[in-house]
C-alpha cells in the first residue's frame, strides 16, 4: 500500500499490458459463453488463437487511438469515449477480417460473430471499469490507508461548480480534504447523491452533519450567491467553529480548470454587507485610448490599482507620479513584468513642488489627470495639520491650475467621505480641495465656454486592504496573537474594495461633464467591532479566548459615524443605480483662491492654531471632535 501511495501515475506500458490482457480474457470469455462452457467445442474453434488474434488487433488499434496514454486516476468522459472508439474500431476491423477470411481464405471466420459481439461488449465494460476501479483505489489510499490525517468537509452547492470542486479535490494527491456531504438551497436536489455523497437541504442539517461526520470545514461552491446568503452561511459556520473556503469565480479557472489549490479561504473582503458594485462602460476605453494619462499617488493602494485598470484601455503613455521611492520602484517592476504592452513613465516627485510639477506637465503634456496623491491618516494629520493642508489643499491646487494651463481634458480628483461634515484636519483639508476644484470648474464654465478642463470629484468610504486601513492592521495583530485594537464599540464605517473604488474613479471620468461630486450607494455601514470578531473567527481563533479585543478610545479627530453627504447636500441620480451626484453649491472661485493662497503664509509662520482656524473659516461645517482644536469651535 505504501508503494501505491507513492505511485502517482501508472506507466503507459503497464496500462497497455493490462488492456491487452483484458482483450484476451474478454475474447476467451466470449468463446466460453457462446459454446456454453463446452471445452470440446471451444478447442474445435481454436479459442486461444482467436483470442490472441483479437488481442493483437486491439493493440494495433490502440497504437492509433492512444487510449493507453490517459492518466488512470484522472479517468473521465473523454477517456471513456476513447476506449469506446478503440473497441468499435477493433470490432469493425474483425467484421471485415471475418468477411475476407471466410469468403476468400477459409470457410470459417477468425472469430465467430457472436463471440466478437460478446468479446467487444465485455471488453468495453472491463476497460472502463478497471480504470474507474484504479481511480477509486487511489482515492481510497489517499483518504483512508495513508498515515496522513484527513479533514472532513461539506460542499455548499450541488450544482456544476460544486461537482467540479469535488472532482478537483479528489484529483489532487496532496489535498487532505475528504468531502463527506453536499448542501444546497434547491429543495429538488435534497436526498439525491453526488459521487456517493448525499445532498442535504440548505443549512438545516449542518449542525447534525458536523457531529455525525466530524466536519471541520465548509466549501462554498455556488455561482452568483448573494452577499446576504453568503453572510448567513459564514455566520453559521463561525457559530459551529468551521473553517470556510470558497471556489473562485468561474472566469478565474475555466481556461485552466479548477484545482484544489485554487479553492481559497474566505477573506473579509467577501463579507461586504452589499452586492459588489460592477461597472462596465465601453466609453472608458474611448476616453483613454491613445491618450497621455497622469496618475498622481501612483504607488499608493488606489493609485496603483488605477494604473493597472487604466493599462487595459491602451493609453499612449501612462505617467506614474509619486513621492514614495520604494513603492514607486515596486510598481514599475510590476508593470514591466505583467503589463509589458503598456508604455509607462515613472516620475519621482512631490505634488507640492510647483516647479517640478510644471516640468512634468511641460514634458509629457497629459490629456487626462487622476489625482490620488494625498495624506489620509486622520490621527497623523491631526498632529501635523500643516502637512495635511500643504499636500491635500495646496498640492491639489497646483495640479489643478497646471491642468488648466496645459489644457488637460479632464481632471478627476479622488476624495473621501471624511470630507463630509469633517471632524478632523484631514477630512477638512480634502473638503477644501473639493471646494477649490469645483469652484475652478464653475469659473471656467462661465468664462471659457469653448474649451476648458473639466474637474470631477469622486467621494467614497474606507477602502478594504488599502495602506493604513483597519484590515491590514487587524491581520498583523492576529498574527502576533492580539489584542485587536478597536477605538470604540459603536464605531462604524462604510467599506468598499480597491477595485470598486478605482472603477468609480474611471466611471466618473467618463460620466463627468465638470463640477460633479460622485458618491457611491455603499449599502449599510459596517461595525468595526463585528469586523474584528469575524476576522478572529475566520483565522480559526476564538474571540476573547485565543485573541482579545481591546477598546482604546476615539483618536484625535475621529468620529463614530461617517456620512457620504453633509447636512446641506442632496443627490441626483445617474444612469447607474449605485452612483449618485452630490448637489453642492460651488464657492466663489476668486474668494477661495485667495483663501488657499493665504495658507502658504500660515504654513511659513509655523502656527498650527492660526492654520486650523483659517481652515475652519474656509470649511464652516468642520467641527473638531476628540481633538485639541475643539477649543477653536468654542471660541466662535
Give a written overview of the molecule.
The protein has 636 residues and is an alpha/beta fold. The protein folds into three domains: 2-143, no CATH class; 149-266, NAD(P)-binding Rossmann-like Domain (Rossmann fold); 285-462 and 496-522 and 566-618, NAD(P)-binding Rossmann-like Domain (Rossmann fold). Helix content is 49%, strand content 15%. The protein contains 22 helices and 22 strands. The strands form five sheets. A nine-stranded mixed sheet has the order 10-9-8-11-12-13-18-22-21, sandwiched between helices. Helix 11 links the parallel strand 8 and strand 9. The termini are far apart.
Question: Keywords, please?
Answer:
alpha/beta; Rossmann fold; transmembrane; NAD(P)-bd_dom_sf; 9-stranded mixed β-sheet; 7-stranded mixed β-sheet; disordered N terminus; Polysaccharide_Synthase-Rel; membrane; 636 residues
Helix/strand-derived category reads: alpha/beta
Number of structurally distinct domains: 3
Corresponding CATH architecture of the largest domain: 3-Layer(aba) Sandwich
Give the overall form.
elongated
Please report the total strand number as a whole number: 22
CATH superfamily of the largest domain: NAD(P)-binding Rossmann-like Domain
- Cα distance spanning the termini: 85 Å
Radius of gyration of CA atoms, rounded to a whole number? 35 Å
For the largest sheet, list the strands in their spatial order.
Answer: 10-9-8-11-12-13-18-22-21
Mean pLDDT, all residues: 81
CATH C-level of the largest domain: Alpha Beta
**What is the tally of helical segments?**
22
Transmembrane segments: 12-33, 45-62, 83-101, 113-133
Organism: Algoriphagus aquaeductus
Pfam families: CoA_binding_3, Polysacc_synt_2
Protein name: FlaA1/EpsC-like NDP-sugar epimerase
Amino acid at each position: 500500500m505504501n508503494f501505491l501511495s507513492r505511485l502517482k501515475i501508472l506507466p503507459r506500458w503497464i496500462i497497455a499490458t493490462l488492456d491487452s490482457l483484458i482483450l484476451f480474457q474478454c475474447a476467451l470469455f466470449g468463446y466460453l459463453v457462446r459454446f456454453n462452457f463446452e471445452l470440446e467445442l471451444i478447442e474445435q474453434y481454436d479459442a486461444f488463437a482467436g483470442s490472441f488474434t483479437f488481442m493483437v488487433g486491439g493493440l494495433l488499434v490502440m497504437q492509433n487511438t492512444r487510449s493507453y496514454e490517459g492518466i488512470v486516476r484522472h479517468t473521465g468522459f473523454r477517456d471513456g469515449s476513447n476506449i469506446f472508439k478503440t473497441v468499435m474500431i477493433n470490432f469493425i476491423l474483425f467484421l471485415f477480417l471475418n468477411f475476407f477470411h471466410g469468403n476468400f481464405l477459409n470457410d470459417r471466420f477468425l472469430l465467430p460473430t457472436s463471440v466478437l459481439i460478446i468479446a467487444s461488449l465485455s471488453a468495453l465494460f472491463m476497460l472502463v471499469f478497471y480504470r474507474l476501479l484504479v481511480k477509486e483505489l487511489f482515492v481510497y489510499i489517499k483518504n483512508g490507508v495513508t498515515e496522513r490525517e484527513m479533514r472532513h468537509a461539506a460542499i455548499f452547492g450541488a450544482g456544476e461548480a460544486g461537482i467540479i470542486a469535488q472532482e478537483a479535490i479528489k484529483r489532487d494527491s496532496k489535498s487532505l480534504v475528504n468531502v463527506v456531504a453536499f448542501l444546497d438551497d434547491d429543495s429538488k436536489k435534497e436526498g439525491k447523491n453526488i459521487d456517493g455523497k448525499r445532498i442535504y437541504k440548505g443549512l438545516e442539517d449542518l449542525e447534525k452533519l458536523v457531529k455525525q461526520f466530524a466536519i471541520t470545514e465548509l466549501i462554498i461552491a455556488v455561482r452568483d450567491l448573494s452577499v446576504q446568503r453568503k453572510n448567513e452561511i459564514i455566520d453559521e459556520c463561525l457559530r459551529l467553529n468551521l473553517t470556510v473556503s470558497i471556489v473562485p469565480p468561474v472566469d478565474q479557472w475555466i481556461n485552466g480548470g479548477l484545482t484544489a489549490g485554487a479553492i481559497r479561504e474566505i477573506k473579509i473582503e467577501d463579507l461586504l454587507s452589499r452586492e459588489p458594485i460592477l461597472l462596465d462602460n465601453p466609453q472608458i476605453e474611448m476616453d483613454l485610448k491613445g491618450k497621455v494619462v497622469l496618475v498622481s499617488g501612483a504607488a499608493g493602494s488606489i493609485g496603483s490599482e488605477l494604473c493597472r485598470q487604466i493599462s487595459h484601455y491602451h493609453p499612449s503613455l501612462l505617467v506614474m507620479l509619486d513621492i514614495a521611492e520604494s513603492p514607486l520602484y515596486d510598481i514599475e517592476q510590476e508593470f514591466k513584468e505583467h503589463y509589458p504592452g503598456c508604455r509607462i513613465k515613472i516620475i519621482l516627485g512631490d505634488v507640492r513642488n510647483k516647479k517640478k510639477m510644471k516640468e512634468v506637465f511641460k514634458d509629457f503634456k497629459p490629456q487626462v489627470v487622476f489625482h490620488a496623491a494625498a495624506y489620509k491618516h486622520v490621527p497623523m494629520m491631526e498632529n501635523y495639520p500643516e502637512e495635511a493642508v500643504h499636500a491635500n489643499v495646496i498640492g491639489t491646487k497646483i495640479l489643478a491650475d497646471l491642468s488648466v494651463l496645459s489644457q488637460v481634458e479632464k481632471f478627476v480628483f479622488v476624495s473621501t467621505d471624511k470630507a463630509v461634515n469633517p471632524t478632523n484636519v484631514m477630512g477638512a483639508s480634502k473638503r477644501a480641495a473639493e471646494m477649490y476644484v469645483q469652484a475652478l470648474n464653475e469659473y471656467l464654465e462661465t468664462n471659457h465656454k469653448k474649451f476648458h478642463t473639466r474637474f470631477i470629484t469622486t467621494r467614497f468610504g474606507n477602502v478594504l486592504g488599502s495602506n493604513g486601513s483597519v484590515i491590514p492592521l487587524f491581520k498583523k495583530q492576529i498574527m502576533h496573537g492580539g489584542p485587536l485594537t478597536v477605538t470604540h464599540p459603536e464605531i462604524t464605517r462604510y467599506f468598499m474594495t480597491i477595485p470598486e473604488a478605482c472603477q468609480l474613479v474611471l466611471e466618473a471620468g467618463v460620466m463627468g461633464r465638470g463640477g460633479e461630486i460622485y458618491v457611491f450607494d455603499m449599502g449599510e455601514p459596517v461595525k468595526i467591532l463585528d469586523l474584528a470578531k469575524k476576522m478572529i473567527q475566520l483565522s480559526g481563533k476564538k474571540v476573547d479566548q485565543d485573541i482579545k479585543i481591546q477598546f482604546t478610545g476615539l483618536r484625535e479627530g475621529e468620529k463614530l459615524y461617517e456620512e457620504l453627504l453633509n447636512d446641506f447636500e442632496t443627490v441626483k441620480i445617474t444612469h447607474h443605480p449605485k452612483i449618485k451626484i452630490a448637489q453642492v453649491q460651488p464657492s466663489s472661485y476668486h474668494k477661495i483662491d485667495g483663501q488657499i493662497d493665504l495658507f502658504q503664509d500660515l504654513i511659513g509662520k509655523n502656527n498650527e492654531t492660526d492654520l486650523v482656524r483659517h481652515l475652519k473659516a474656509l470649511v464652516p461645517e468642520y467641527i473638531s471632535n476628540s481633538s485639541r482644536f475643539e477649543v477653536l469651535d468654542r471660541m466662535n
